[in-house]
Design a protein that fits this description.
Shape: globular
Number of helices: 15
Strand content: under 5%
Strand order of the largest sheet: 1-2
Largest sheet: 2 strands, antiparallel
Distance between the termini: 20 Å
Radius of gyration: 24 Å
Low-confidence stretches: 1-38, 250-282
Number of strands: 4
Length: 496
Amino acid sequence: MIVNYGATTIKEPKIKENGFSNDNELEISVPFKRRRWWNVDQKVVYGLGHVYNDLCAAMWFSYMMLYFQAVLEMRAAVAGAMLLLGQVVDALATPVVGVLADKYSTKKVWHLTGCMLVACTFPLLFVRCLGCNVSENLAYLSWWMPLYYGSLIVVFQIGWAIVQISHLAIIPSISDSLQVRSDLTSIRYMASVLSSLTVYFITWIVLRASNYSNFIGPSDDYKFRDVSIIITCIGITTFTVFHIYFKNRSMKNRKDITASNGVNTSNGKQLNIEEGEPFQMPAVSQIFHFLQMPMLYQTSLLYVFSRLYWALSLVYVPLFLEERLSVNPNEGSELVASVPLVLYISSLLFSFLLKSKISSCGNQVAYFIGSILSLISSLWIALTISPEASIVQIYLVATLIGAGSSITLVSSLCVTADLIGPHSHQGASVYSIVTFADKLVTGIAVVAIENYKCDDVLNCPQYYRGVLTYACGGSALLGVISLSVTMFMSKCKVKA
């Protein structure tokens, strides 16, 4: 029998009831059946495990740049450097966390550690630092403000990476069924969408209820502080429920299944028949093994470009709206919350639709459809969304952005879970490799965009409209190209 391991093929020997075949070969993996304990309630509880990360991510990507530039009055290049710092730290921490999480302790222990780091640092990112008042000396603030927030960002991003990788790695450890993994990925994404909706809804309420203004300025610092505190309270509640009620029994079940086939040792490790001793692939060997697989790089590109489109949309839609308010101030500052709210509602609806249709249409077809919708949204912004365009058009474009990004993100994560296959003990390592480039590319893209921004707004009054057109549209186009290459390589492999 042949087992597909990503882009490689491994022979799976037959095992008799005594646990060994005539040619002394060992079964690599055993099909894992659904257990009675795995029910709808457990799936929902699993989705709660990443809610705090999703709340922070929505706030980070949507309002961090706006907070730094409009409230703290940082230069655009410095604010972009702060976001790049966070992405670089996240990217560097991701593979380290992946290796350590597969080797030491349990995924839940790592998850709890990351949650605690995030809870201790994230709220402080939206609180004005000591001595950072507008009236303070600008020379002093030029080094103190980046140093203070940069230190918080480093710790926050390390914690965020720990939570993300450990939570993703739980998916392939639960079941070998591709359908179950697709369901969990969709549930995880729907939880992410609901979390982001919560952030935008809370922000909309706070902006409307407290000292209403047409612009976001230095006097609005307390509004962002209140929002960060509220979502932190929600996040602490959700990850506490996750750790109390979620029971990941997969590893024990897998050992029991292996033992029933007569191939289990006293310490739960598989036997190396040739050497006659317990064998377990070293963590570094796992990384190098996957690095030799062409499918890994193809999967990584699909994930990177879907995440890049999503991240740039989150970062620059609020800045585009703030840019628009300079021309139409009567629309009100709450627009920076209501438009992302519509974007995420659309994303949620399409993620529900995708959950039931992705198995029938396939991950690659779903990714292509999502990329086309993303391209259409960028073209719409370029051709018709002028400063005088109606609010209705902006909401319609936001709907398209949400639809395209949700489809590409879910389908790319499903492709990654398929790549891991039954080898869940290497899940954290694979997810860390796939997400590494995503963090780095996003940070570099934001810094490049901010460095090209004019110091005088009058010289580039529609700069962020161009960003949503060319940067986001380019990301979607690169996703389509990567998908085409992946499908072409797959066909060539089949013919060979």
